[in-house]
Specification:
alpha+beta, single chain, 234 residues
Length: 234
Amino acid sequence: MADPEADPVVTEAVPEPPAEPPAEVPAGPTPEEVRAEEARVAEEARVAAGERIAAQLEAARVAERETRPARPVRSPAPPAAAAARATVDDASTNHVFRPRTGARRVVGLLLLVLLAATAGAAYAASRDQTTTTLGLAGTLAVLTLVVWAVRAGSAPTRMSVTAGQLEVLRGGGRFVFDLRSPHTPIEVVGEPGSRGWKVLFLRRSMEPFVVDATMVDPEEFTAVLRRHRPERTA
């Protein structure tokens, strides 16, 4: 049996080792970081696609240059100075003459006077129908018609020079003369400003074509003619 008086056995408590802290779990990327990463990846993909397209275009241009047939070698063009000089000369000698409308203007004024006189005579004849008033009204009406017909048929002559070609439009007809050609016979009668001044263009088996002061200003026509045929205006 055990001795009740024996010393009690003292049991010492063994301390437990300290508990290890739980391992930290790394936190995931934030939404901003995810979006930034996606943007970066998209930008790299865009740049790579652009470089790939540029490389394809360059390869296509190289292939086209290699397959394109060589252009034929053209002979050198003639000097352009002579052509340009001829064009400038033609432009400097081109001229449009002012039409002589003095006679047509006078006929127009006469026609206005006759119209007014005819209207007055017709009014007088309607108020006093006598032989005199009726005859006067009829005479004025006939004269008005005659003057109107003269004015309608007296269109001014139009004349111009283009590249040495004199063109005359008169009475519905068109006449062309080469001022530069020595084969175009020209005779000048009188001096510009004189009463009998005129220029004759001689035509084989036809009457000469006459240019006079009723068609064009003599001084103006002589100046233009001198540029092409100075021997005819000396």
